[in-house]
Structures are given as C-alpha cells and as structure tokens.
C-alpha cells in the first residue's frame, strides 16, 4: 500500500536581493538558490541594486538556476544591476538569455495583474514579505 502523495507547493514569485556575488560567497548563495528552487517558483527576481561585483562563478550559478527554472516552466529575471555589472552581463551575453529590468518595479509574475501592491505594505493584506537571511543573500518571498 502506497502512501498518498501530497501536492507540491508552489510560490508565484521569489525575490532575492544579493549584495555580494562572487566565488567567495558562492556556497552560501548556492544554498539560498537550492532552498528557493524547492519552492517551485513561477518567477525568481534577483535584485542586484546593492551588489558591487559579480564574477564568472556567479554567472555560472545564474545560468544553472535559469536552466532549472526553465525545466519547471519558471522564469529568472535580474533587476537593477549597476552600470558596471550591466556591462559584465552584456559581455557575458547573459542579458540575451535572462530579462534584465532596470526600473524599480518588479516585473509582473505570469498571470498576475500588472500593478501589484508593494511588498511589505502592512495596510494591504497578504503583502507582508516573509524574510530570512542566508549568508550574504537576503531572500524575500512575495505571495
């Protein structure tokens, strides 16, 4: 007799703010991505506005996360890289693979309205983010 299988939990949008993204913090950042991919997100947005440096190891990790998301129908997007990081992403041609948004608004999750309430607005029910930190990456989950 087999045990009944529980349906998988999915999260529509996961936002990750990264402040350091290089080989030195790759194990910690990789662990964050492993945990968030277990949520089966529809969309992952990586906010790079506070990140000063990105290297080849970090680009490799982004490509790996992108491949894993594509397999499950998800999308990985980058948001607000500084001009130096934007040039690195262009040189690596990552901007041709991943959407790179330079505005302050998160791109809408597939199938959602275009004017989403701001994350963490206490006056709007269901928008308060659940936050936790792993290493140097702060993870915010918006439901």
Automatic annotation (TrEMBL):
PROSITE patterns: STAS
Superkingdom of origin: Bacteria
Residues of the STAS domain: 44-98
InterPro entries, per database record: STAS_dom (IPR002645), STAS_dom_sf (IPR036513)
Region Disordered, residue ranges: 101-143
Name of protein: STAS domain-containing protein
Species of origin: Micromonospora qiuiae
